[in-house]
Amino acid sequence: MQKQFGYARVSTAHQNTDRQIDALLEYGVEERNIIIDKQSGKDFERVGYLALKNTMLRSGDTLVVKELDRLGRNKRMIKEELEWFKAHGIRVKILNVPTSLMECEGQDWILEMVSNILIEVMASIAEEERAKNHQRQSEGIQAARNKGVVFGRPTVTKPENYEAVMERVSKREITAVQAMKMMDVHKTTFYKLKKQYWKKDN
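User: That's the sequence. What structure does it adopt?
Assistant: Structure tokens below.
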């Protein structure tokens, strides 16, 4: 028997899901079939959502959400979830996306088309979001460089006796442990300095 489930989500325990639940009930979802999460939408590792996806929904069932961002915030991951639902024969209805609510009894190709449209829309939005983030990141890095901010790993400060000690190491007059003590550096720093010294000579 095909079932209809509703999903509501807010980001924190202090936020209220009443608006979403009222919309789901009004659409015809039974209260007992509404699953609620009070967790961030940054990923899909949520108790209620995972239970819904892994143990409740079956092929032929329908998942109803008030708005697409109730599934999650990450557009790329939402697209992947929509593809998963489609592959498992589960229809997704978004109450604020009228196209997804079309009833087409016996016309599976229309449902297929609706699913594809949703997935393509999410793919386009995700791509646009990635491009914007990349642009903002590039602009931020450039602005920081203009202010003199240096990116990358900090360079190792060479002790005053660096040249003399490393020369003795290269001639095998002293051991690495002795050199570390003489320069008062840790093992990791010593091998970074040694690497720099060999590069200089080669």
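Helices lie at 18-27, 47-56, 75-87, 108-146, 162-170, 176-183, 187-201.
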